[in-house]
Amino acid sequence: MILYKNGLALIGAGLVKRDVLVNRGKIIEIAEWGGIVPDQQTEIVDCTGKYILPALVDVHTHGADGYDFNTADAEGMQKIMKFYVSHGVGTVLPTVMTDDEGRIMRQLQLICELAKRYPEIKGIHLEGPFLSEKYCGAMPVRYLQKPDFDKFLQFQQAAQGMIRLITVAPELDGALEFIRKVSQTGVTVSLGHSAADGERVKSAIGAGARSFTHWGNAMSPLDRHDLNMAGSALLYDNFCEVICDGKHVDKDVFRLLLKAKGEDKIVGITDSIMATGLPDGDYTLAGNEVTVKNGDARLKSNGVRAGSTLDAYTGLANVVEFSGLPLYRAIKLWTVNPAKLIGLDSRIGTIEVGKDADFIMFG
């Protein structure tokens, strides 16, 4: 057992003086300072002057430190994971984007092997290939295809059942039935890279879709005559991913979104690429050439944004800055909200007895 003593733990509505006892990766007791008497076999960790916070959850990230999940080998993936852990991430869904089918299969298999060494990997986000050509963003158009449930099952088999989240464009032929079937398997469906109008989005939500991927980016914008996808996200009680870098969504627009959705329905994401943690320069994203200038990643071919160079720590700090929310409220966007989105809130997202000992210390 391990006893974390004399820390300021973020529990409920603020930081409180607490000791936390952990056994085999689970929190088994929480008490006021000095309230837990350890036995001789218990390891003591002195947290005096340190904050104990729930570890951050990133459900949409392509890579960091020179590698991405579409192209990295096992060694490269380990470097990505070390970067995440060093930046406060306790749960991650490595995100594989639209690509050659064989490459997708191979990378899904590699991530499954990596998960045996890194318990932080609690699933996979498959962003594509069932997406709109009109709003493809940085996705390679030649690999986009119509929704195919049998194809999804092949991907899921390669992933050994680890796909927890998939992004789909609901206006494509067969998409509604696809969303219904995928949702019935327990996988969370998110809507994105889409030209859908408001009625189609409504139908997709009725079919089981639960979220919107990187809101405001690569989706049909709100119009005074039609909600389209961006507006539908404001109307319906679904989760919205937001890239919290201040570039993909302006900070004032973020505040408007927060006002419309409430702090319990926004999921902070990085959408980070291999350039994250590295200087400006030339990189790739799933093989596409990308240039990063002033931390802003764009495709060389057409100037379209290509993910971000954001890390999770900075994303949380940005939420606090943009929103004016106190830390105990802002952190929900990076902890319990994404945990709920992927169905893991009974295990992670808050510091509670019975949950995983998934917390970070700093100070």
UniProtKB/TrEMBL annotation:
Does the record bear Metal-binding in its keywords? yes
Enzyme class, UniProt record, top EC level: hydrolase
Q: Which GO terms describe its biological process?
A: N-acetylglucosamine catabolic process
- Gene Ontology MF, one: N-acetylglucosamine-6-phosphate deacetylase activity
What the record notes about the co-factor is:
Binds 1 divalent metal cation per subunit.
- Signal peptide feature range: none
**Domain (Amidohydrolase-related) ranges:** 51-362
Please state the Enzyme Commission number of this protein: 3.5.1.25
Record-annotated residues binding Zn(2+)? Answer: 127, 193, 214
**Keywords from the UniProt entry:** Carbohydrate metabolism, Hydrolase, Metal-binding
Cofactor(s) listed in the protein's UniProt record: a divalent metal cation
> Which sites are catalytic?
271
The entry sums up its family as follows: Belongs to the metallo-dependent hydrolases superfamily. NagA family.
Please state what the protein is called.
Answer: N-acetylglucosamine-6-phosphate deacetylase
Q: What organism does the record attribute this protein to? A: Candidatus Fimimonas merdipullorum
